[in-house]
Structures are given as structure tokens and as C-alpha cells.
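To assess whether ligand presence alters the predicted conformation, the chain was also submitted together with zinc ion. Input:
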Amino acid sequence: MENCLFCKIIAGDIPSTKVYEDEKVYAFRDINPQAPTHILVIPKKHVSSLAMIDEMEDTDLAACLRAVRLIAQQEGLKNGYRVVSNCGPDACQSVPHLHFHILGGTQLADQMA
Ligand code: AMP
Ligand code: ZN
């Protein structure tokens, strides 16, 4: 999709620190990390948020979550991690391309909001 920051990252038009890629998924380090490990996992086919996943193939959605598990293993997050997907304005979603944050590498806050 034109003018989508994360589509541009997938296309290589904007640089990113890749940690994982397969046919359906791309994952890279968040530019403003909020934990020692902070990775974004995104589907290669543009969909704006979880609110729009009716537009998405189940296999693409499942591939994102399977990639989360693989990446957590790859990053050595043996003691756990948090997966967050901000959806819409109330959740302060700032990039309208579905993404799953993987946060870990430390004891995370008990409160999520
Ligand atoms: P959200 O606020 O849930 O939409 O998350 C968007 C995330 O994208 C934020 O954590 C940003 O720090 C991150 N971000 C924005 N631009 C970039 C970029 N060019 N490379 C990596 N992460 C980015
Ligand atoms: Zn996009």
C-alpha cells in the first residue's frame, strides 16, 4: 500500500533491522524500544489493524503468531515475553499496518494500561 511506513520497510525503501522473514511475515527491531527486546512482527500483505482482519487470509494471520513464537525462541526469551497489538485510537495505534509488538528481556510491568 502506498504511503504506508511498514509497507515501505517490507519493500526495503526504508531501512530496518530485520530479525526474521519468511514468505508471509517480516519482523524488525522497534526504532524506539520500550524493553531490552522490542520487535515488531508484521504481515507482508497490508491490513491496517486487528479490526480489519476479515480482509486477511487466516494463514497470513497464523503465520504472524507462529513467527512470534519462533522469534521469541531465537531471541532467547526463555523467561517469557509480552505480545501487544494496539488497535485504533484508544490504544494509541500510530502505524496503520497490523503489527504485533514482542516485548521482553526484563521483568515487565504488572499493569498493562
Ligand atoms: P503502535 O504505536 O502500536 O502503532 O506501534 C508503532 C511502533 O512502530 C512504535 O513502537 C514505533 O517506535 C515503531 N516505529 C515507527 N517507525 C519505525 C521505524 N522506521 N522502524 C522501526 N520501528 C518504527
Ligand atoms: Zn502497510
